[in-house]
């Protein structure tokens, strides 16, 4: 029997079990769905009639999305999420901790179908609002959940299959849920692994944003230009960040002449100009730059140095996790360009040596025109993995299709 035939039989069996339960025949436990589902039915029936046709609406949801801690991390993976949703025939949704949908994406046909039951921004999908569904189970239990067809308490949802996973803050709090939903006949065992991989990416970005600042000074210069002291930003001009980055990467004293060459190249810049930039940096670092020959006199953590250390230790996949993009991408300083190329070559080689698709997918997100990386991701992904669509779309984009 083909897969759809098996799903059709399962759907019919679940509908018979649901109909008996709703009618009050609850004696035959062997004929019941999963205990987790039945327990949710028992709770939900007190609030939600099975004939409810759509979710209630919270009109303030649009205003909350812009200020949600999930907004930026979700936006960072939105291209991958959109590709999975559109290629797989899903609607993707992100909720807050109450189960209210804040954001959705997907193909036009599936989104319109979802809107008929208010599976759209503003729709409330917690148990008291919409009964048994994957969103409400993931929120209640704090773990991934799937609900197929007539496992939903509300009959209007029997045409759907839903996969959900909670999105957690670094302290373990559930901030919301990521959901992939489609018609029952698109149920697929690889949907949940694709979903949980996306949630992992979102949570990694959350950790960078929400984890209390590490003590001391921390320089972010990969895909960024930021100095933090105990988690709070320190105001520096771009040229001073370039100086700090060079001193951190060199790891030893630099003469004024060499530093000037690394910063300005053939441009005519006086020693006085360089000295003024270093003096401002020294004040911002509270004296942590030596005079005459320039070097850091206090330890300063730096993401670029961390990536190189991980690569030197043979921990390439961890290096890719830390790598946030090209070194000071807007800088044209000769020394920065040299270090940028060195880091990119080293990270890229580690990606190509890895036998797992995740590093190639991660690096490819930051380098959309690197065809070889996208082809590597596609070659490593198992057949049928929903992320194949992401890698294939990136290949076509890199080719200019």
How is this structure best described in words?
Helices cover 50% and strands 12% of the residues. With 401 residues, the chain is of the alpha+beta class. It has helices at 3-22, 35-44, 61-67, 71-76, 78-88, 108-115, 127-130, 134-141, 191-210, 238-250, 256-264, 271-284, 303-312, 316-322, 334-353, 357-366, 371-380, 388-399; strands at 91-95, 101-106, 145-148, 160-168, 174-183, 217-220, 226-229, 232-234, 301-302. The protein has 18 helices and nine strands. A hairpin with a 5-residue loop joins β1 and β2. The protein folds into two domains: 3-210, Beta-Lactamase, CATH 3.30.450.40; 217-353, Orthogonal Bundle (Arc Repressor Mutant, subunit A).
- Report the total helices: 18
Q: Tell me the CATH architecture of the largest domain.
A: 2-Layer Sandwich
Major sheet, described briefly? 5 strands, antiparallel
Helix content: 40-55%
Give the key terms.
401 residues; alpha+beta; Beta-Lactamase; Arc Repressor Mutant, subunit A; 2 domains
Concise description?
This protein is α+β, with helices and mostly antiparallel strands.
Q: Helices and strands in order, then pairings?
A:
Blueprint: H1 3-22, H2 35-44, H3 61-67, H4 71-76, H5 78-88, E1 91-95, E2 101-106, H6 108-115, H7 127-130, H8 134-141, E3 145-148, E4 160-168, E5 174-183, H9 191-210, E6 217-220, E7 226-229, E8 232-234, H10 238-250, H11 256-264, H12 271-284, E9 301-302, H13 303-312, H14 316-322, H15 334-353, H16 357-366, H17 371-380, H18 388-399
Parallel strand pairs: 6-9
Antiparallel strand pairs: 1-2, 1-5, 3-4, 4-5, 6-7, 7-8
């Amino acid at each position: 029997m083909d897969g759809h035939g098996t799903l059709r039989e399962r759907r019919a069996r679940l509908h018979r079990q649901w109909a008996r339960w709703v009618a009050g025949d609850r004696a035959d436990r062997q004929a019941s769905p999963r205990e987790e589902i039945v327990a949710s039915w028992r709770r939900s029936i007190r609030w939600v009639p099975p004939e409810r046709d759509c979710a209630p609406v919270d009109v303030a949801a649009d205003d909350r999305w812009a200020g949600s801690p999930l907004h930026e991390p979700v936006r960072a993976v939105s291209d991958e999420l959109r590709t999975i949703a559109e290629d797989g025939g899903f609607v993707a949704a992100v909720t807050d901790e109450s189960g209210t949908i804040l954001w959705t994406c997907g193909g036009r046909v599936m989104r319109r179908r979802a809107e008929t039951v208010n599976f759209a921004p503003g729709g409330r999908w917690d148990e008291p609002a919409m009964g048994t569904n994957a969103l409400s189970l993931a929120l209640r239990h704090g773990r991934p959940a799937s609900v197929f067809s007539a496992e939903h308490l509300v009959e209007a949802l029997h045409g759907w299959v839903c996969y959900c996973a909670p999105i957690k803050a670094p302290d373990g709090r559930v901030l919301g849920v990521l959901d992939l939903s489609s018609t029952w006949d698109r149920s697929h065992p690889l949907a949940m692994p694709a979903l949980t991989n996306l949630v992992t990416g979102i949570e990694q970005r959350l950790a960078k944003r929400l984890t209390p600042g590490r003590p001391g000074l921390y320089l972010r210069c990969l895909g960024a230009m930021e100095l933090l002291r105990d988690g709070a930003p320190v105001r520096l001009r771009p040229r001073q960040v370039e100086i700090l980055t060079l001193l951190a990467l060199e790891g030893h004293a630099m003469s004024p002449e060499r530093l000037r060459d690394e910063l300005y190249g053939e441009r005519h810049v006086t020693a006085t100009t360089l000295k003024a930039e270093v003096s401002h940096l020294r004040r911002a670092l509270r004296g942590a730059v030596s005079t005459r020959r320039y070097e850091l006199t206090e330890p300063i953590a730096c993401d670029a140095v961390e990536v190189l250390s991980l690569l030197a230790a043979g921990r390439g996949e961890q290096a890719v996790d830390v790598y946030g993009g090209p070194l000071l991408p807007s800088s044209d300083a000769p020394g920065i360009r040299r270090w940028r190329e060195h880091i990119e070559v080293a990270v890229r080689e580690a990606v190509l040596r890895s036998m797992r698709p995740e590093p190639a997918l991660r690096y490819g997100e930051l380098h959309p025109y690197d065809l070889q990386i996208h082809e590597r991701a596609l070659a490593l992904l198992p057949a049928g993995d929903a992320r194949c669509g992401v890698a294939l779309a990136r290949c076509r984009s890199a080719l200019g299709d």
